[in-house]
Every structure is written in structure tokens, then in C-alpha cells.
């Protein structure tokens, strides 16, 4: 049994302590009472974002996020009560640029509790789109269940002529309630597409078609009448990492590479006590000689160094232009910098800091 498998097994047996009764959200109250008892039970957990926003008349594209609470959101979607028996709870009410460890842990614990106590067949999380990919990836790495957990957002707030929230929420509930979603775990539904957490990324700042999964494509499609998966249900065992028992995830910094780069930002991260550094490298995770020398200094101090890329698609491979074996670096493969950061945080929190073991974990999370 290698170290990473040991974490998986330990994680499975320690599930009760990692997700103990710390859920502080309000008790569920029905958003719709009209669904027959035989319908799938879907729990909507609202966190904020544009999907809960309303247009601001003072500016053409301005809006105030977080105006509409989870239960109201559900009630505002015509026909949604025919898909499932739906309860809604408010976990937070933030723009997802303010998503943080505290809300993540609360969300993870509430989902685990709902599944462990058989309160729901599937979960829908309403979320801002800026960091929806990070929350999806975080949850996929810590949840001990493969029941469907569907994150959904919108690019336009309620009250605008092209508001996309109601249809996205309808389709998210449709996917979470579908028998075809069993065993698929965490997914993201946006604009008629179903994405997997490892691959989804935001590729447009404002367009309704904002998301893509560049290295793999979508896992399915949804419209108000049908759910169609084009990828099989994942069969490989999924590694599960524990949340830290006390306090937030360890600090891991992302440093963005560019032409004419020196090592100062990396040296600052070292001096500030980062436990890991992810370089959003150029091309295949490259960086200037000065930046690489600073990363060598980080490795010497026991800091985990991961080479990711600022390029939107492709893999960062080991030992191409940079001698990772010699320097003690890890490559992120297809994980973008923000997801590489999260995985490094979770690994460090679980005591995995050896470069070879971190590399093994990066290679084995899909
Ligand atoms: N800033 C918003 C958020 O991420 C944008 C959105 O939801 O589309 O919460």
C-alpha cells in the first residue's frame, strides 16, 4: 500500500470525524410541496453569485449579487417542481470571488451529512461562476460519495432580458435527479453542458457560453427535455483527502510567469511562509532562469513546488525543458494553476509533501 492509497483508506475509515456535526446551515424547509413522494429528493444549497443577483438599473450590465435566496430561486423556476422533491438551504451569500475555506468546509460537511443520513438523492449547489471550478474540484477531492453533486451558476442576473439562471437551475436539478447521473459524483452544469471538475474552466469573462473543458470536452449535454451523457460513469477508485481538523488549508501561493521575470515574487512567497508554490508557467510550465533558481531555493526549504501553465489547454510534462527529477519539482499535468493549488493544499494538509508522492497524487486524480 503506497502513501496515497493509505490516505484514501484512512480517509474512508475516518469519515465520521472529518465531516462531523459542524454543519451550521438552517434546517431544510420545502421550496415546493407539490412533488410526489416517489420523486428524487434534491437538496439545493445556495452560496451566492450572479445566479442569485438582480439587475442594477444604474448601469447597463451592473447588478447586485446575493439579492435572491435559495428558496426564492427555486420557486422562480417554472416547472422545476415536476422534476424532483426539492428542499433549499442557504449556506452563504457571497460572490464566488469571496469563496473561502470556511464556506468550503461547511458545504462539504453539509453534503456529506445529507448523503450519510440519506436526506437527499442528489445535491445542487448554486454558486458564482468566477470560482465554481475550484469549488467543484475541492468537493470532488473530499466527498465520500459518488451521488450526484451538481454545481450551477449564471452569467446574467435575474431581471435582465437574457437571464440564464432559471434555465441553468432547471437543468442542474434535472441532471442531479437523473438516474443516469448515479455514480458520477461532482459535476458542473452551465448553458446546456455538463462538465467534470478536473477539466472545466472559465474561458470567457462575460459571455453566456463561458465554460469549456479544453483537455477532455464535456461529459454530457442537457436540455429541458433530456439528459445525455457522452462519457461513461467513472470506474476508477477515487482518492479522498481529509479536511484539516483544525483551521484552514495550508498556504499555497500561485506565481504568474512572464517574459523578463526575476525571482522576487517567489522569494516573497518563501519568506511569507508558503507551504507550496504553484508556478503558472509559460508554455509547458516554463519559467526564466531566475525564477527557476528561486524555485530551487523553495525546494531546499521543503516547500512543494508545482509547475503548472498559464496556457488554457495541454499537459505540463516532466523533464522536457526543465529537469524536474534533478530539481525536485512536481508537474501539474492537466490541472490549471488554481486547481493545482487546491490539490497541493489538500495534500500538504494530509501530510504529503514528498515530491514523488505529490506527483503520484497529481497523476491519479481522474
Ligand atoms: N463575480 C460573480 C461570482 O463569481 C460572477 C458570477 O457569478 O458569474 O460570484
UniProtKB/TrEMBL annotation:
- Signal sequence segment: 1-20
Q: GO MF terms on file?
A: asparaginase activity
Active site feature: 50, 129
What residues does the Asparaginase/glutaminase C-terminal domain cover? 251-362
Which superkingdom?
Answer: Bacteria
- Please tell me where substrate binds in this chain: 96, 129-130
The record's section on InterPro entries has: AsnASE_II, Asp/glu_Ase-like_sf, Asparaginase/glutaminase-like, Asparaginase/glutaminase_AS1, Asparaginase/glutaminase_AS2, Asparaginase_C, L-asparaginase_C, L-asparaginase_N
What keywords does the record list, in alphabetical order? Hydrolase, Signal
User: Which Pfam families does its entry note?
Assistant: Asparaginase, Asparaginase_C
Residue span, L-asparaginase N-terminal domain: 41-230
One record GO biological process: asparagine metabolic process
UniProt similarity note: Belongs to the asparaginase 1 family.
> What is the name listed in the Swiss-Prot or TrEMBL entry for this protein?
L-asparaginase
